[in-house]
Amino acid sequence: MSGPVLVLQTQTRGGIAVIRSLGEKGIPVVAADSDRLGVGLFSRYCSRRLVYPDPEVNKDAFSEFVLLELARHKYDLVVPMFDATLLPLARKKAQVEGLTRFPFLDYESLMRGRDKAWTVAIARQCNVRVPATYTVDSEEQVESALESLEVPVIVRPRETSRSRGLRLVARREDVPSAWREVSGCFGPA
Predict the structure, then answer these.
(1) Which of 54, 63, 80, 119: disulfide with 85, CB 3.0–4.6 Å?
(2) pTM of the model
(3) Taking 80 as the threshold, does the pLDDT of residue 169 lie above it?
């Protein structure tokens, strides 16, 4: 690599680690974040610092900002650290790849990988043992699933990353309310 690398979400430990690792190898880094006080923006390894629109608030404004930056300046690579920046750019993968390297899957493939029900179905097809798993769309389906489950159970969003929305429920009577909470905040559970 001879050109700079654009690192997004530099307020995170991962962002800081990427900046440091690239910088120690002599690779120029442009750090970017939606928080103008993001700690990674203050790294000694940054050759430039950018503040972009918050992708959690406006994905389109974020994507347009990054695409404009990539069009104005030559980058060898763009590195979104987490889903908040990865997913909006993956939606525009062809445009991003027309400007720099973007070594990530397309949006549809990423979303499929986030879908826990789909992941369980693929695992079952491959004869991988998985816990009893039910995708439920109503309280009646929750009650029906509980007939064949023992507590504790885990209620989690169907689409999520890390442990966002995950609830460990120890009492059978608490499962419907946990399902309502999770599905209300995160969508299908």
Answers:
(1) 80
(2) 0.77
(3) yes
